[in-house]
Design brief:
83 residues, alpha/beta, 4-stranded mixed sheet, 4 strands, 22% strand, globular
Length: 83
Amino acid sequence: MAEGRILLTNDKDFAELTFLQQRAAAGIVLIRLPRLRGSEKAARVFEAVESQGERLYGVFTVVEVEAEAIRRRPFLSVKRRDS
């Protein structure tokens, strides 16, 4: 979290644990795209990260197939590198 990095993962348990501990990342993106191939998945994640940008900090985001399915849950407290 000291480096202000966003964690990208497709491991739901790891993402939830990291979110609850609030130590490993400035934001968490859980990738839930089971039916997409690697290149399609990468394109969808890139699209989500590019479109959401700074809004990914301090929240738990779930990326699904539909753009409208990006959901957020705020962290209890967030320390950003530029704050």
